């Protein structure tokens, strides 16, 4: 069974408490349950992680290389700041799907640029936590159709 790594960046441990008008009331534990359920349905093994430490995130991305079939990542604020995570994702050499709970394009200008989108196969923003399930479904679709990166 292929493994899909679902990574969450800083402050996402505060989901449900933090700005519920932006991110909703569901907790990260709810998101994990959703991801595991979706993975089980699609016969994908899900690894689910969250960290507030950029070096830890980079280590997990490196360890994904040659080990997992893909990465779903909500990089949180590192989306807009981290060349290091961008570089790590390239080094991992696995398909990457970027997820944002909120529609970052409807928010402050500093959220409009993503270093991660440059290396992502697909980007979901504004679907709420359902975006994680959609990302996992899309990943399964890519696997089934053996479809590579689209320009
Ligand atoms: C976020 C959007 C980011 O701009 C923000 O820093 C987050 C969460 C989202 O899921 O909508 O922490 O990635």
Overview of the structural elements:
The protein is an alpha/beta fold and 151 residues long. It has a single domain (3-147), classed as Dehydroquinase, class II (Rossmann fold, 3-Layer(aba) Sandwich). The protein is built from five helices and five strands. The protein has helices spanning 20-23, 28-41, 54-64, 83-92, 130-145; strands at 3-8, 45-50, 70-74, 96-100, 122-125. Strands 2-1-3-4-5 form a five-stranded parallel beta sheet, sandwiched between helices. Strand 3 (70-74), helix 4 (83-92) and strand 4 form a beta-alpha-beta unit. Helix 3 runs parallel beside helix 4 (83-92). The longest helix has 16 residues, at 130-145. The two termini are 28 Å apart. Bound molecules: 1,3,4-trihydroxy-5-OXO-cyclohexanecarboxylic acid.
Structure at a glance:
36% of the residues lie in helices and 17% in strands. It is an alpha/beta fold.
């Amino acid at each position: 069974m292929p493994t899909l790594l679902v990574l969450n960046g800083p402050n996402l441990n505060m989901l449900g408490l933090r700005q519920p008008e932006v991110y909703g009331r569901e907790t990260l534990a709810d998101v994990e349950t959703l991801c595991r359920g979706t993975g089980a349905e699609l016969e994908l093994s899900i690894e689910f992680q969250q960290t507030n430490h950029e070096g830890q995130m980079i280590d997990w991305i490196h360890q994904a290389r040659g080990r997992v079939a893909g990465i779903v990542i909500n990089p949180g604020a590192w989306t807009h700041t981290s060349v290091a995570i961008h570089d790590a994702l390239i080094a991992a050499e696995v398909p990457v799907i970027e997820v944002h709970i909120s529609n970052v394009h409807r928010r402050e200008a500093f959220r409009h640029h993503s270093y991660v989108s440059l290396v992502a196969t697909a980007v979901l923003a504004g679907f709420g936590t359902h975006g994680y399930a959609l990302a996992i479904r899309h990943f399964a679709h890519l696997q089934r159709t053996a479809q590579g990166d689209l320009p």
